[in-house]
Specification:
Shape: globular
Number of helices: 8
Radius of gyration: 14 Å
Number of strands: 0
Largest sheet: none
Structural class: mainly alpha
Helix content: over 70%
Strand content: under 5%
Distance between the termini: 30 Å
Order of helices and strands: HHHHHHHH
């Protein structure tokens, strides 16, 4: 198996699965009457509750609002940052930085397979640069 295949199909906690779960949740909760930001906030708050139940302090309201502000309504941005924060909490953020491009690629591919073509994110470089700026300013 290649690194891409492992990261894509490794199961719960792996980037591919994280992207699929959070994108499906977004699709399920989103409606014309709910803003993208309110749906992303709900998903991150729900995940925070689960983390707290298992004794992990991963997210907080200030960080969630910063993520929402920079996400531009894109659940994938929030999913990547949440994955990186989880790795930081377990002292594994260096692995995220060392494998940044392939992690972004795996998560983008999963997102783009699940959403309608007109909702996909196709500018890899721009998306990656936005993520890196957020990571450097908020997580590293």
């Amino acid at each position: 198996m290649t690194a891409y295949e492992i990261l894509d199909n490794g199961g719960p906690g792996f980037p591919g699965e994280t992207a699929r779960v959070m994108t499906r949740n977004y699709i399920e909760f989103k409606s014309p009457f709910k803003s993208s930001n309110s749906v992303i906030r709900k998903i991150l708050n729900d995940r925070d509750v689960v983390y707290k139940q298992i004794g992990m302090d991963v997210l907080n309201s200030v960080l969630i609002e910063k993520i929402i502000q920079k996400a531009n309504g894109e659940i994938l941005f929030a999913a990547f940052v949440e994955m990186a924060i989880t790795n930081k909490t377990t002292n594994n953020v260096n692995a995220v930085m060392e494998n940044f491009d392939i992690l972004v690629e795996v998560m983008l591919d999963n997102y783009n397979r699940l959403v309608p073509a007109n909702k996909g994110i196709y500018d890899f470089t721009s998306f990656k640069n936005r993520l890196m700026l957020f990571m450097k300013s908020e997580l590293i």
